């Protein structure tokens, strides 16, 4: 049987590790601990930097220049801080001989069994599987966009392209472990830089051309709409920075993990600063308060594309390829759950006993996600609601609580009150963001239709 590097007993700074625990199949096969800090950086980048960043110019239309850039920078600082807190807690637990490999393991060991089983586990599963559905929908939309550029007036419908993208995901889903995605995620990192550079260059080109739209940077709508728009924008920005699988990514590191996650986060946030701010600023500058839900829609213009067809095709191909990597990354928590329940850790990973259920269950998972994506092409509204209930608690609230409970900083210390303040404000945003998301679902309900060709 394959032996995980986590199953080692060591002594560090006078602390003797607890006896090694026998790993279940999910931890042993999917969360294989063999990666370097650079591999961790690739995984982190793919989990955060995706085509969802193309909605950032729209978020700025709801906040304006000052509010938008402040929120964008503040969310980046808070998440970088939050993810480092999670990493410190995980490193501390490993030092004590209790390496936690999953978010729900952290919740179970730090807050109690019920938190892992009934709160964090379902929240994380819902967010990650929802991301798979959303990415499948986005992949289908990118394919359709490429099809219409090369064949204007084509009759194929959106659900057909979603099915095609699902077929590609079906193959990639069979990658055996998170660690085995390291090369795919390196390509993903390069692709996200490429499509962000294309979008930035395209926005600047349009902004300086005679096709440039009349730009207005005032926030549109009534006072009520503007107030709800602020919270919608905050939800969009928070969801764009969200990962939800930080412990699972750290689990792919070969022990000892001390300091490696920080290096990986520096790689990731270097890419984030480069892509998020360039796309947000250039897109909002070029289109003002006319920026759409995804800035690529603005490139199409009212009557004809504002950029050469070859440029739009290239940008969409980069986006399509990168979203396929994001989809497979967010399948990993589902894969891990299946392996834990249905695989036998005492048998080799590639034995018939383990390969057959893996093939069946992963394929079934992709088929279900593809079906939902085809049925619900308005899934973005639902994902916003899931983001309010899932992304903010997992990425903005729980890391603060985990740190305070684990290290017990003095109530007179700055770190205690910073953590408490972030958690408290984030808790309020959960409620307000959920209300704003439900309101948007109600407003858009009249356009909902199953298998709509959007």
TrEMBL record:
Keywords: Amino-acid transport, Auxin signaling pathway, Membrane, Symport, Transmembrane, Transmembrane helix, Transport
Pfam families documented for this protein: Aa_trans (PF01490)
Domain of life, source organism: Eukaryota
Family: Belongs to the amino acid/polyamine transporter 2 family. Amino acid/auxin permease (AAAP) (TC 2.A.18.1) subfamily.
Main location: membrane
Residues of the Amino acid transporter transmembrane domain: 34-435
TM region positions: 62-86, 118-139, 159-179, 186-208, 228-246, 267-287, 307-331, 359-376, 382-402, 414-436
Keyword Transmembrane annotated: yes
Name under which the protein is recorded: GABA transporter 1-like
Gene Ontology MF terms: symporter activity
Any one Gene Ontology cellular component term annotated for this protein: endomembrane system
Coiled coil (UniProt feature): none
Membrane topology listed for this record: Multi-pass membrane protein
Function description: Carrier protein involved in proton-driven auxin influx. Mediates the formation of auxin gradient from developing leaves (site of auxin biosynthesis) to tips by contributing to the loading of auxin in vascular tissues and facilitating acropetal (base to tip) auxin transport within inner tissues of the root apex, and basipetal (tip to base) auxin transport within outer tissues of the root apex. May be involved in lateral roots and nodules formation.
Species whose genome carries this gene: Prunus yedoensis var. nudiflora
Stored InterPro entries: AA_transpt_TM (IPR013057)
Compartment annotation: Endomembrane system
């Amino acid at each position: 049987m394959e032996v995980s590097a986590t199953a080692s007993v060591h002594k560090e700074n006078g602390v003797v590790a607890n006896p090694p625990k026998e790993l279940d199949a999910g931890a042993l096969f999917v969360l294989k601990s063999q990666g370097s800090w650079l591999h961790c950086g690739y995984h982190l980048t793919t989990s955060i930097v995706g085509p969802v960043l193309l909605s950032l110019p729209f978020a700025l239309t709801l906040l304006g220049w000052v509010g938008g850039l402040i929120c964008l920078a503040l969310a980046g600082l808070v998440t970088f801080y939050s993810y480092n807190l999670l990493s410190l807690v995980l490193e501390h637990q490993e030092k004590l001989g209790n390496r936690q490999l999953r978010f729900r393991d952290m919740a179970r060991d730090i807050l109690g069994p019920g938190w892992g089983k009934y709160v964090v586990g379902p929240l994380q599963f819902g967010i990650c599987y929802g991301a798979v559905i959303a990415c499948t929908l986005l992949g289908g939309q990118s394919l359709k966009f490429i099809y219409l550029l090369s064949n204007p007036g084509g009759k194929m419908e959106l659900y057909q392209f979603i099915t095609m993208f699902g077929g590609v995901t079906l193959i990639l889903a069979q990658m055996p472990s998170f660690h085995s995605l390291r090369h795919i995620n390196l390509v993903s990192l390069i692709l996200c830089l490429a499509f962000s550079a294309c979008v930035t260059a395209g926005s600047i080109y349009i902004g300086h051309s005679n096709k440039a739209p009349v730009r207005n940077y005032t926030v549109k709508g009534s006072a009520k709409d503007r107030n709800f728009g602020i919270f919608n924008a905050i939800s969009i920005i928070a969801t764009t920075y969200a990962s939800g699988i930080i412990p699972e990514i750290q689990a792919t590191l070969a022990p000892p993990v001390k300091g490696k996650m920080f290096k990986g986060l520096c790689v990731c946030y270097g890419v984030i600063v480069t892509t998020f701010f360039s796309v947000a600023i250039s897109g909002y500058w070029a289109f003002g308060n006319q920026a759409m839900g995804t800035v690529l829609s603005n490139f199409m213009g009212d009557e004809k594309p504002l950029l050469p067809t070859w440029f739009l095709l290239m940008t969409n191909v980069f986006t399509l390829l990168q979203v396929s990597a994001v989809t497979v990354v967010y399948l990993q928590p589902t894969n891990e759950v299946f392996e834990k329940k249905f695989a036998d850790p005492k048998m080799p990973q590639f034995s018939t006993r383990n390969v057959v259920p893996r093939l069946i269950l992963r394929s079934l998972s992709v088929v279900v996600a593809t079906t939902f994506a085809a049925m619900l092409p308005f899934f973005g509204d639902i994902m916003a609601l899931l983001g309010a209930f899932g992304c903010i608690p997992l990425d903005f609230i729980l890391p603060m609580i985990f740190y305070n409970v684990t290290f017990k900083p003095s109530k007179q210390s700055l770190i205690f009150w910073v953590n408490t303040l972030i958690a408290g404000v984030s808790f309020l945003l959960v409620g307000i963001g959920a209300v704003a998301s439900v309101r948007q679902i109600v407003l858009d309900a009249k356009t909902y239709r199953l298998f709509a060709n959007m």
